[in-house]
Write a structure and sequence with these properties.
Mean pLDDT: 95
Distance between the termini: 40 Å
Helix content: under 10%
């Protein structure tokens, strides 16, 4: 059984930083690309960032480019999302997800391409 557990969310002032973590278990983590998504109240879940199975490819939605960094530590079965210069519009529940197919390097932005999801961690950016 695959489990993804996010942590690191919280309340932060505009301009601040947070680092989200997603710990994976249940299958060979290093074989699968990972993604971060977010869902704001009343909105659809949207893609944030992607990292390939070997960390050789990363991809971001335009609104977070230059502010967010996705990374992974395959020895720890963990993927991270470093979020800097946070804005109120970044407020959402953040989810990590694991790609369905192994060894993916092409960025996947659609939720349908991911078959395992965490429970989410809330991020609130407010003064």
């Amino acid at each position: 059984q695959v489990q993804l557990i996010e942590s690191g969310g919280g309340l932060v002032q505009p301009g601040g930083s947070l680092r989200l973590s997603c710990a994976a278990s249940g299958r060979t983590f290093s074989n699968y690309a990972m993604g971060w998504f977010r869902q704001a109240p009343g909105k659809e879940r949207e893609f944030v960032a992607f990292i390939s199975w070997d960390a050789g490819t990363t991809y971001y939605t335009d609104s977070v480019k230059g502010r967010f960094t996705i990374s992974r530590d395959n020895a720890k079965n963990t993927v991270y999302l470093q979020m800097n210069s946070l804005k109120p519009e970044d407020t959402a529940i953040y989810y990590c997800a694991s790609r369905t197919a192994p060894n993916t390097v092409v960025p996947s932005t659609r939720t349908q391409m991911y078959n395992y999801w965490g429970q989410g961690t809330p991020v609130t950016v407010s003064s």
